[in-house]
Design brief:
Strands 1-2-3-13-10-15-8-7 form an 8-stranded antiparallel beta sheet, covered by helices on one side. It is built from 9 helices and 15 strands. It is α+β, with helices and mostly antiparallel strands and 380 residues long.
Length: 380
């Protein structure tokens, strides 16, 4: 397996491209024809030298729940073409992978259920006490939680969500050291301070390593969805990034996993400019591609592209799809014709947080930590 330095500095020429994308006025950026935009059609892909290497068909995927199982209510993802640039082999661009209904379900699982599981660390855990005790059920043995051990049995009701608090609630995140940090309101937590939450293997951003302790179980339904689309990898860890306009993700490589299996990246909400590139061994200028990613698009980084430098220099403001903007409020109106029970109804119970997604981009980045021969015991 390739061994690379997680602390290595990106190539200078890629850093220049990244900075230019950060500084370009957004009006010019969205019209820049050097950025791949799949909505421009087949001419666009040909102009950038992209080829269709496969057709992604994951129509058998289902999100299951105790209420919906067996009643035909599960919603399935679509089929779409897989594009690849010849100078980035293995880096697959998959526009429109997830249908809107699947995106809404995935969003609710990640930000209602999984965010309230205290085994899933956030960027705030180090400095704040997260008020998990406010929920009726939570993970056993975890700070502020009561017993539940299986994600498939996690509470799927509106109260198992930080969005069940009104923005004006007096509930706060108390600092671990009041001399250094001030308390955070739930409004501050959800609207600006929450930047990421980790699922399964809990990556340490300081040491750039995974802890040796047995990780929490990866959410089964989310893992099933990812495996159906990308059967070559086993979902064991994920980072759910929460972006607002003005936020970026610096150029980096994901090299801490003890597996070279592909990385999966799924976009939800506002559009983003994604930059990826590989440095040439002969020292010549790095080859790169910039892509406008929309809600439901996916990127699969495998082969040589598994270790490409990549980052997000821009979030496109006001670009969240109209049918998602109101989330977590009133998305029930989109699904009302389905009348499929709790999975649809629970999406409409957070009116105080209407339009929260209008300015957000959520990115689910999933990876396999170990090769099969290195697999740890199944975590509890």
């Amino acid at each position: 397996m390739t061994v690379l330095d997680a602390h290595q500095r990106p190539p200078d020429d890629l850093r220049v491209v990244f900075k230019n994308l950060c500084r370009t006025p957004i009006v010019e950026l969205v019209q820049d024809d050097s950025i791949v935009d799949f909505q421009r059609g087949s001419y666009e892909t040909a102009r950038h030298g992209l080829t269709v290497v496969a057709s992604q068909n994951v129509s058998g995927v289902r999100f299951s729940s105790p209420c919906a199982a067996g009643n035909g209510s599960d919603l399935v993802v679509q089929s779409t073409n897989v594009h690849e640039a010849p100078f980035l082999p293995g880096l697959h661009l998959i526009p429109g992978l997830l249908a809107p209904k699947i995106q809404l379900q995935l969003l609710s699982k990640l930000l209602h259920r999984d965010l309230t599981d205290s085994r899933h660390l956030t960027n705030l855990h180090k400095h704040y006490k997260i008020p998990y005790e406010s929920f009726r059920s939570g993970p056993s043995g975890a700070e502020g939680g009561s017993a539940t051990t299986d994600h498939s049995e996690a509470a799927e009701n509106a109260e198992q969500s930080f969005f069940s608090f009104p923005p004006s609630t007096s509930t706060t995140l108390e600092p671990r050291d009041p001399a250094i940090h001030k308390p955070l309101t739930i409004n501050q937590f959800l609207n600006k301070k929450l930047r990421w939450v980790t699922l399964g293997g809990q990556y340490d951003w300081t040491t750039k390593q995974y802890p040796k302790e047995r990780p929490p179980r990866f959410p089964k339904d989310v893992g099933d969805l990812v495996r159906a689309a990308f059967p070559d990898m086993q979902p064991e860890a994920a980072i759910v990034n929460v972006y607002s306009p003005g936020d970026t993700l610096s150029l980096h490589r994901d090299v801490s996993e003890a597996s070279s299996k592909g990385l999966v990246s799924i976009s939800l909400g506002c559009e983003a400019i994604f930059l990826a590139g590989l440095e040439n061994e002969d020292g010549s200028k790095s080859k790169h591609i910039a892509v406008r990613l929309r809600s439901g698009d996916a990127v699969y980084m495998s082969g040589a592209g598994r270790y490409a430098w990549h980052g997000v220099p821009r979030i496109v403001p006001n670009s969240c799809p109209l049918w998602m903007r109101a989330w977590p409020a009133e998305t029930i109106s989109l699904l009302a014709t389905d009348r499929q029970g709790t999975s649809a109804e629970r999406m409409g119970n957070f009116e105080d947080w209407r339009d929260w997604m209008a300015s957000k981009r959520i990115n689910l980045n999933v990876r396999q930590m170990f090769d099969e021969e290195q697999q740890q015991d199944d975590p509890a």
